[in-house]
Amino acid sequence: MKQLLFSLTLSFFATINFISAQSEDETAIKSKLIEQQEAWSNNDLEGFMQGYWESDSLTYYSGGKVTQGWQTTLDNYEKGYPSKKDTGTLRFQIDAITEITKDAYYVMGQYFLTREAGDKNGTFMIIFKKINGKWKIIADSSC
């Protein structure tokens, strides 16, 4: 009986630690997305891009087109959203954060742009990976 009680207690604490680790990761990812919302809403596209992996391997998929690279993604954002009236105010709605592996999650959600140039809404699925201790977007699919 003592052994069963010990096993159950050990199991309980292992589960609590696992849930806490997930919560910390999810909290960190949500925090990164809040930082991105704020940067975008301040027309700071380079600040927005700090959430992305600064690599030529960053993958972005939108409008049936795949592009590669951090700089290419930033260039495309700057071309498509040249001024504050184009960037407007960004708000994310997170629908799901799902663990893929210990150091990777996918996030599904919606974005809402309120702007002078006309409101724009859509969906996204992004993949976050922990790189050098920081959560970074390594792939983004938005429409």
TrEMBL record:
SUPFAM superfamilies: NTF2-like
Residue intervals of the DUF4440 domain: 35-137
Name of this protein: DUF4440 domain-containing protein
Name of one Pfam family that matches: DUF4440
